[in-house]
Design brief:
This protein is α/β, with parallel strands linked by helices and 191 residues long. Helix content is 30%, strand content 26%. It contains 5 helices and 11 strands; from the N terminus they run ββαβαβββαβαβββαβ. Helix 3 packs parallel to helix 5. The longest helix is centred in the first third of the chain and has 13 residues.
């Protein structure tokens, strides 16, 4: 399967989210790309998705839950704020991997960390291709969180996924939206 993404300056549209954790993570992160107000219905309120929301708030997003709707006001991808503190991903590997892709193209340093369990999980599978695009990382023992990410100018790559991973693929596509040139991700089976 082949996915190709090109750099964008903004996103516009409507999304109604089924109460699904994976979709909820991605929807709130995609809302960070577009300046202005996003409305998300059926956002799954779970510890992992709340970790993503807290991290995005540290990057300058205003997030408010109202009844069955979440309101997300973003300055847009180009105006995300450098976080003043470590971004706490809790126990959410999805939060850490997707934010690594989002932050890879930002011109500042951010530190992603998690609980003791998450900090024992290697992140090399997401760090390697993002580094190939131009992001810089520091980690414990080369791939264990906390991860310090120095983002900046990215360039597109062609990358064949050695192992199917929707999280790594999503991180690469988020970074690809910020890269010069084309980013192409190949995978043996859809993830």
């Amino acid at each position: 399967m082949r996915y190709t993404v090109n750099r964008v300056s903004f996103l516009k549209g409507e999304t109604e989210v089924a109460p699904d954790k994976s979709i909820s993570h991605r929807t709130v992160i995609l809302s960070a790309l577009s300046p202005g107000l996003s409305r998300v219905s059926n956002f799954l309120q779970a510890e992992d998705t709340q970790a993503t929301c807290r991290c995005l708030q540290s990057l300058g997003l205003d997030i408010e839950q109202r009844d069955q709707e979440m309101l997300i006001k973003s300055p847009g991808i180009n105006d995300l704020e450098e976080p003043e503190m470590v971004l706490d991903c809790g126990n959410s590997g999805t939060t850490m991997r997707l934010l690594a892709g989002l932050l890879a193209g930002r011109p500042f340093t951010a530190i992603l960390s998690g609980d003791s369990s998450l900090n024992k999980r290697p992140m090399g599978r997401v760090m390697k291709p993002l580094a190939m695009m131009g992001a810089h990382f520091m980690a414990r023992q080369d791939s264990f969180p906390p991860l310090a990410i120095q983002g900046g100018d990215l360039h597109g790559i062609e990358y064949s996924m050695p192992v199917a991973s929707a999280q790594v693929k999503s991180a690469l596509l988020l970074a690809g939206l910020q890269a010069q040139g084309i980013t192409t991700v190949y995978e043996e089976a859809p993830s």
